[in-house]
Amino acid sequence: MSKLPNTSASIFSVMSQLANEHKAINLSQGFPNFPVDGRLLEITNRLLIENIHQYTPMVGLPSLLEKITTLTYKNYQRIIDSASELLITTGATQGIFTTINTLIKSGDEVIILDPSYDSYEPSVLVAGGNPVRVSLNDDYSPNFNRIEEAISHKTKMIVVNNPHNPTGKIWSEEDYQNLETILDKHSQIVLLSDEVYEYISFKHQHISVNTRPKLREKAIIASSFGKSLHVTGWKVGYLIAPKHLMKEIKKVHQFLVFSVNSISQHVISEYLNVVDFDEISKMYAKKRTLFQDALRESKFEILPSEGTYFQVVNYGEISKKNDTEFAKELITKHGVAAIPISVFYEDATDKHMLRFCFAKTDETLLAAAEKLCAI
């Protein structure tokens, strides 16, 4: 008997495979195609010959834990206890899965805001919980009337994602105030805050739950070095949570992966001494501007991208086909791969939107834009 009977190959796999078959420019899956920082490679090469190839402690490499506590204080002025409030995970996805399967039991309800990243609902289903999907507003801001209406005595968790994948939306101060008001009324609810793109924001500064005293005592925050340092294949992330929640999460984590890749932890720990996250954000801001400017002469409507490395466009002036069909046509006829936004909705809401990833070389982005402008 399947725990995920309605789950098939992800849209990311489908589009990437189709892109490979047709030799299309792949702006679908969210991974960079440019080299990592040379300093990171130098550290990796140097440490590979060291005696660092055995298990690290279950919670994470001590030096990396301390670096994260320093990073968290520097950026969010939050003091965390590395021994009891921090956990290194095999990417943020494993951290999210572990959190949900620790804190959600059979029959519990979890509110997920659509469009939503595709790992949330399966994690809830495997835990025996019931996902309750609530649509964001048309501008992709949270609709707190809908959220509050969706809450019942069975609601045990709300999952938020900021900066938001797939739309690039960033939550405002007012959004967080509204969320705090709701959670004050419903003390049984914990917050899972997916902040894997926290260091990629543009005009509006990312507001982390780490900076919200009212929220962080009932919140689990997921972060990703894969996204922040563009080493997605390393699969290293971390969770920050209050001691009473982290204690339970660690119990499940130790039997799921026990400890995370030792080499990656050692390298990242040393790399954090030299990397500047502000420069990473500036680099992606330049790529966003380059890609947007290159699309100005196209028939695509360019929506705001406030954070992440994703750009959403509306193709309504080009075609009336549904977004999945148009995305496939874009690959087979025009040589560019994107992700249709409808797949991020429970009810497959189709507003003729596509998501492009601009974490690519400038040459790749310009070549893709040339093809898109020719449509």
CATH superfamily of the largest domain: Type I PLP-dependent aspartate aminotransferase-like (Major domain)
Number of helices: 14
The average pLDDT value, as a whole number, equals: 96
Q: What does the main sheet amount to?
A: 7 strands, mixed
Order of helices and strands: HEHHEHEHEHEHEHEHEHHHEEHEEEH
Q: Span from first to last CA? A: 46 Å
Structural class: alpha/beta
Under the CATH scheme, which architecture of the largest domain would be assigned? Answer: 3-Layer(aba) Sandwich
CATH topology call of the largest domain: Aspartate Aminotransferase, domain 2
Q: Could you say how many structural domains there are in total? A: 2
Protein name: Methionine aminotransferase
Cofactor: pyridoxal 5'-phosphate
Keywords: Aminotransferase, Pyridoxal phosphate, Transferase
Family: Belongs to the class-I pyridoxal-phosphate-dependent aminotransferase family.
Write out key terms for the chains shown.
2 domains; alpha/beta; four-stranded antiparallel β-sheet; 13 strands; Aspartate Aminotransferase, domain 2; 40% helix; Aspartate Aminotransferase, domain 1; 375 residues
Write the layout of secondary structure elements.
Blueprint: H1 11-21, E1 25-26, H2 38-47, H3 62-76, E2 86-89, H4 91-103, E3 109-114, H5 120-126, E4 130-135, H6 144-150, E5 155-161, H7 173-185, E6 190-194, H8 213-216, E7 219-224, H9 225-228, E8 237-240, H10 243-256, H11 262-271, H12 277-294, E9 301-302, E10 310-314, H13 323-334, E11 336-337, E12 339-340, E13 353-357, H14 362-373
Parallel strand pairs: 1-11, 3-4, 3-5, 5-6, 6-7
Antiparallel strand pairs: 2-8, 7-8, 9-10, 10-13, 12-13
Helix pairs in contact: 2-11, 3-11, 4-5, 4-10, 12-14
